[in-house]
Structures
1.
Amino acid sequence: MEDVKVALLGCGTVGTQVARLLDEQAADLTARAGAWLHLTGIAVRDIDAPRDPAIDRTLLTTDVSELIAGANIVVELIGGIEPARSYILEAFEHGASVVTGNKALLAAHGPELYEAAARADVDLYYEAAVAGAVPVVYGLRESLAGDRITAVLGIVNGTTNYILDEMTTKGLDFDGVLAEAQRLGFAEADPTADVDGFDAAAKCAILASLAFHSRVAMDQVHVEGIRSVTAEDISAATRAGYVIKLIASAKRRETGIEATVAPMLIPNSHPLASVHGPFNAVVIEAEAADRLMFYGRGAGGAPTASAVLSDAVAAASHIVEGGHAPRELIYADLPVLPIEESVSRYQVELAVDDTVGVLTEVSGIFARNGVSISAVGQEHERVLQGEDGLPGRAVCHLTVTTHAAPYAALQQTTAQLEESRYVAGIRRVMRVEEA
Ligand code: HSE
């Protein structure tokens, strides 16, 4: 039996589980790959740092270049742009295939990496980069290669789904849940990449590129995070039959691709509404297959290692039997649309004067901007006290749900609503997904 030499770069939570499973599952992995996946070394920054007992310390090295030079497959689990990018390019130059979980690197430098892999006639695999154990990259690249995808909608960040779910089920506010999540180790000490939507945006760019055979870079994805979602937003959504989820959305429109990450109102009847805690799920809509959902653990050592190992088995079998991983397919070359042209349904909640003509005024502003209203709800609320203690305005809470409208038209609508003398304030504006 041949042996395929595997170099592991990084020995964190995922790397540790990859090393453990390569050892524990060696017989099965060998049978599936047609070769022994022989772990020849683990590159780390500090050889003496404490490690899980599963790690064979004799494999640890700080000489990354020497390790790469002797490898057939390099598993990059360092994360970040550099030095990960240079190590991957070095691996390709030595004729090694690469398995990575590095979403930020792929979203920023995917084309360069794909080209280098194709030039070297080796594989680039990255199942672990999007939604951990959930085989959505394989699903898009291979299972759905016979279909025409129209939309990919995903909960691809477990930290934010955990936070929003805790807010929903316990009625807590964002800061309280974030602090608790950090205490329990569910959220990073610096939560920016997760809560501000950047981690999801990198994954959105990767999914959109695969789904629509076009290059979508991370900085072309419109990003809104969840910091501004309040406990009141959540309870209003619950009352109206929705849950708020951070959704990475990539849709094919007539003129190009729409790619956004934003908190959205998801109807309770939508399959993504039932994704709780830190779980991930990706819904793919395709013309022939119709709707599919991929669900599972998007983070964590063993689940992410599962995706890494399946890539390693595929890469090893190509080394033994020939063939290669799918190359970058960008033949459609669709443009990414500016956010102004993106289209969504919206829910706009307003405090308005409880007076004659207010509905005519409000609906008139929507109409003048070409935004069609699908439903209006009105609740009498209270008398706002004037700042000087004098009796203020009698207001009611108005909820306007629209049909699909361009972002630019919605922005103009809300700007004009702000200026209307009937409007005491705009309370929230949120995208709404179709059921
Ligand atoms: N931080 C990510 C999450 C996992 O919370 O889902 C790695 O991308």
2.
Amino acid sequence: MSDVLTTEKLDGHVALLTVNRPDKMNALNGEVRCAITGALDELKEDDDVRVVVLTGAGDKAFVAGADIGEFRDARPVEQYRSMQAGDIYSRVEEFPKPVIAMINGYCLGGGCELAMACDIRVAAESARLGQPEINLGIIPGGGGTQRLPRLVGEGQAMRMVLTGEQISAERAGEIGLVDQVTEDERLREESMELARTIGDKSPVALQAAKESILASRRMPLDQGLKFERGWFSLLFSTDDKEEGVSAFLEKREAEFEGR
Ligand code: COA
């Protein structure tokens, strides 16, 4: 257990990861990045956990970016190595279980990039999102120039990255940067409801679905369709497929075991 990141296991096969540096707007320093990769390694092996929700402590920030304090006097080679070693964005994206970003305030820079690496983004209506790196004389380094245009299109991505402006949760919803906007006081409830809905499903099918959808980014349609068909057929080897089909035919709820 780390001070800068808490892990809670909740009902419904859900794990909640909370970045815990509220006095620094939950900015991502090396310690937080290391704690996130460590927690993901553990949760990957935990069969009881089928879905992860990621959020920030307090009511001000999800994550307000990389810890700017670490940038001062940093040299290029050290910077490159630390970004490579602490590439939490790819680790989240490649995590074999769905990850939901529960965005409870400032979601800026590396915070916005972390949210974009998640599979679904739910934001409180007061949340603010942006890629302000340009104001520091740098650019996004956690995938912002790559994942943002894929989510919102090139023009909107250019606008956000070139101006560094923050946008509201409502606007983020309109352009497809977040998938659900809730009243502030309902953020946790609605995020957990979504997580539990996903946690009820077969974990093998969840992994197949996540991998197949992510494959659509890098594969031409014909290859993507083959990739999907491969996973679809593979799932016919699972007990969960038998359980899901039988439950439907017997008009009862399925109980997926993850086998
Ligand atoms: N890195 C390091 N510290 C950060 C931080 C970051 N990305 N974001 C906020 N903090 C710290 C502030 O330095 C301040 O620390 P202090 O109390 O020791 O001075 C504390 O968090 C509170 O932030 P503050 O700026 O006082 O709050 P605010 O409500 O006035 O503004 C923000 C909130 C998020 C708009 C503002 O902090 C901000 O612009 N942060 C940087 C965002 C950014 O550029 N992210 C991309 C980094 S590459």
